[in-house]
Design brief:
CATH topology of the largest domain: Protein Transport Mog1p, Chain A
Number of domains: 2
Helix content: 10-25%
Largest sheet: 7 strands, antiparallel
Structural class: mainly beta
Mean pLDDT: 91
Order of helices and strands: EEEEEEEHEEEEHEEEEEHEEEEE
Number of helices: 3
Oligomer: single chain
CATH superfamily of the largest domain: Mog1/PsbP, alpha/beta/alpha sandwich
Length: 292
């Protein structure tokens, strides 16, 4: 059997944090890109790493489950995901709209148990939603907020609603960035401002198209960070073949953008660009501001 690696996530440097770069160390899950940390509940563990990001910007940040030492009567799971709002195929511009879409499109076998409501977790705004399967007798509690133009969801699953309630309370021990919000997590401060479609023609001073050595038909979603002078300083490929990543990197390093101003001062910007053939359209805006 010969295994051939296909499109994969990669970055132009190994220093700048990326969404999939989180890990569990000493029973604490930390993700530097999102600026979050979460101490695992007692007797819980990460057994398996998640898959690479999808070409629609869906990440599995961490999957947690009770360890063998867990003493509870019923077990459960904790799944932390992130949906890149630059590339989502869903008609959702923020975490609130994403939760409402999920509620409105539940399969017939699932029933709404707790309608979407606004709450606070770790002193940050979240949207909370609960549903269940009468056949499987399973309950899902979903809590979502937005960070750096990603809808970050905590999905708690168990047959035991008391366990789920305790897990929700335990989430209050998390550390989250100040910019996190159910409809307002657009970066800024210590991280770049994230602005959807910033690579529009009116913001690009110089552009070079990538030259591909092979014809492929996969979508290539790319997040870039533009420095205060308008140059591309970091390139993150959510899914790309190596030759595609090289060609796009060579091109993007020659791009030049207008500076983005906030309160009259230039700041770094993070935005997304889709190369190749997109299997869906992304037309919702996620930010704005002045340029010079």
């Amino acid at each position: 059997m010969i295994l051939v690696k296909g499109a994969w996530s990669s970055a132009s440097d190994s220093v700048t944090p990326v969404p999939e770069g989180g890990n569990v160390t000493d029973n604490v899950f930390s993700n530097q890109y999102f600026g979050m940390s979460y101490a695992l509940p007692a007797d819980w563990e990460e057994k398996y790493k998640g898959p690479p990001p999808s070409d629609s910007g869906r990440y599995v940040l961490v999957q947690l489950r009770p360890a063998d030492t867990f003493k509870g009567a019923d077990r459960g799971t904790i799944l932390v995901t992130a949906q890149d709002l630059f590339f989502t195929p869903l008609p959702a511009a923020n975490a609130v709209e994403l939760i409402n879409y999920s509620k409105d499109h539940l399969q017939a076998d699932y029933k709404v148990e707790l309608p979407p409501t606004q709450t606070k977790i770790a002193e940050r705004p979240f949207t909370f939603f609960g549903y269940w399967s009468p056949v499987a007798q399973l309950h899902w509690y979903v809590l979502a907020t937005e960070m750096r133009c990603h809808a970050v969801e905590f999905v708690l699953t168990s047959r035991d609603t008391k366990l789920l309630e305790n897990l929700v309370l335990d989430l209050n021990k998390m550390k989250l960035p100040a910019e996190a919000g159910a409809a307002a997590g657009t970066g800024g401060g210590a991280v770049p401002m994230c602005i959807k479609d910033y690579a529009r023609d009116e913001n690009v001073i110089a552009r070079v198209d990538p030259v591909f050595s092979e014809r492929r038909f996969n979508p290539v979603p790319v997040r870039i960070i533009i420095d205060k002078e308008g140059k591309v300083k970091h390139i993150h490929f959510l899914s790309a073949f190596p030759e595609q990543a090289k060609a796009i990197t060579d091109a993007l390093k020659q791009w030049k953008f207008k500076r983005y101003l906030r309160d009259g001062k230039p700041v770094e910007v993070e935005t997304g660009i889709m190369f190749g053939r997109a299997a869906y359209s992304t037309t919702r805006a996620a930010g704005g501001g002045a340029t010079d």
